[in-house]
Write a sequence for this structure.
């Protein structure tokens, strides 16, 4: 019960501070749009080539935006040493991670919701018929990125070369989830859409495995 | 703050070592603080006061040795001490009230809203309860930090140089607050530089040098000499 109540209190704090400042949402939304626009110049929208590359570009844009998000995830706790006060206050440090990763997933999904219409327009792709399954893939993929990213953010925040360390650790760790997410999304955006359930199951397993690892080892990431 | 129902809890450091790489921040530190004592940690900059306080707070783990809380329900379960550091340890973007309610909820305080209101009145910040902490002056921030540290009615209060940045009025207010908290049964441990209205509250002084305890006294005159020597 304590884990749930602590997580809900911390999640409320994360959402309140973000919706008050809108730092992350503004930055990531603008960034993700710029990436989509720039990529759209590289291919001819509506062609088979664009349709082939679009899922990969979509997930690359999500990856870049999420790495911006994770950079400040634990760094903002260092300003007033609030991470120490949280560690003193919570009975289970996993609550700190859980709140942050739920908030990061929600922020990513919100950014993706803003991005999808532009994505459909720039790449001339019809998303409507596959939207429910596409949202499931986006949810599982974003949750996986958020779990791994939040963990790496906690580790890198205490390092000296934190700006370098985060992408260096994050990108290899996220390779499997990005490859699978892009493949499954590619299947959905095909002229003859295919739902790759094995890929979706892989995303779910990735999320559960990383969440369990974070639950077991998370407290060590927070130690000074 | 006198109404705090505080169960008496002490602190016991047994052969505490803290090493950062090859550097010893603390070396075989052993002493015990009885429940309800008001202890000053004195020593030059870098003598290990902050590290010892952070270990006592449970923020830093010792490399070797054992910390326990005699008098707590379970000696070895950290008693969630209240800790006031150099920084406020609260969120600048949140209001004073939001901060206190958050930390009240995290520490399972019954009716955190009412407790936050009570604390805001006690630290004279009730009129500014809806203001973001980033708009506060240094003194107000320090009062906010104290309110956060006391929100869960801790039995041990740890203060790292509490008078830093406070004007004489602020120091007087802090001395009165600490006196009340200590009278209510709370064990107070604070690091200090030099003599002040706050140091007059101390019933004991422990001096650290290069990470080791070099003096431990309960006599008023000796406490003053430890502070003037070790305060740097």
């Amino acid at each position: 019960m304590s884990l749930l109540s602590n997580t809900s209190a911390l999640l409320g704090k994360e959402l309140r501070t973000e919706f008050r400042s809108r730092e992350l949402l503004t930055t990531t939304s603008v960034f993700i749009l710029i990436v989509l626009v720039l990529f759209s110049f590289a291919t001819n929208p509506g062609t088979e080539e664009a349709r082939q590359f679009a899922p990969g570009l979509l997930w690359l844009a999500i990856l870049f935006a999420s790495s911006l998000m994770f950079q400040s995830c634990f760094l903002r706790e260092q300003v007033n040493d609030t991470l120490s006060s949280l560690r003193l206050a919570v009975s289970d440090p996993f609550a700190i991670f859980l709140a942050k990763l739920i908030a990061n997933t929600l922020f990513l999904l919100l950014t993706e919701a803003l991005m999808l219409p532009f994505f459909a327009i720039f790449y001339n792709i019809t998303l409507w018929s596959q939207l429910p399954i596409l949202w499931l893939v986006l949810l599982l993929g974003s949750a996986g990125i958020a779990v791994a990213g939040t963990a790496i953010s906690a580790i890198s925040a205490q390092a000296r070369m934190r700006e370098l360390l985060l992408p260096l650790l994050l990108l290899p760790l996220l390779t499997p989830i990005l490859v699978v997410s892009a493949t499954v999304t590619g299947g959905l955006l095909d002229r003859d859409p295919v739902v790759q359930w094995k890929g979706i199951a892989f995303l779910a397993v990735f999320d559960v495995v990383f969440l369990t690892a974070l639950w077991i080892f998370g407290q060590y990431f927070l130690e000074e | 703050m006198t109404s705090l129902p505080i169960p008496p809890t002490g602190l016991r450091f047994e052969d505490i070592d803290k090493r950062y790489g090859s550097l010893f921040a603390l070396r075989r530190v052993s002493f015990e603080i009885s429940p309800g004592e008001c202890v000053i940690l004195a020593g030059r900059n870098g003598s290990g006061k902050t590290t010892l306080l952070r270990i006592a707070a449970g923020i830093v783990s010792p490399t070797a040795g054992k910390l326990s809380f005699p008098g707590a329900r379970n000696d070895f379960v950290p008693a969630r001490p209240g800790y006031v550091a150099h920084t406020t340890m609260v969120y600048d973007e949140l209001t004073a009230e939001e901060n206190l309610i958050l930390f009240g909820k995290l520490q399972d305080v019954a009716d955190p809203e009412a407790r936050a209101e009570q604390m805001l009145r006690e630290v004279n910040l009730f009129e500014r309860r809806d203001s973001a902490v980033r708009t506060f002056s240094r003194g107000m921030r320090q009062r906010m930090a104290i309110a956060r540290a006391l929100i869960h009615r801790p039995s041990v209060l740890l203060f790292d140089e509490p008078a830093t940045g406070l004007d004489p009025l602020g120091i007087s207010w802090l001395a009165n607050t600490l006196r009340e908290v200590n009278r209510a049964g709370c064990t107070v441990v604070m690091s200090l530089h030099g003599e002040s209205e706050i140091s007059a509250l101390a019933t004991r002084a422990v001096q650290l040098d290069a990470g080791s305890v070099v003096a431990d006294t309960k006599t008023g005159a000796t406490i003053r000499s430890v502070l003037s020597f070790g305060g740097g």
About this structure: Helices of chain A lie at 2-21, 23-42, 48-73, 82-89, 94-122, 131-157, 162-189, 197-221.
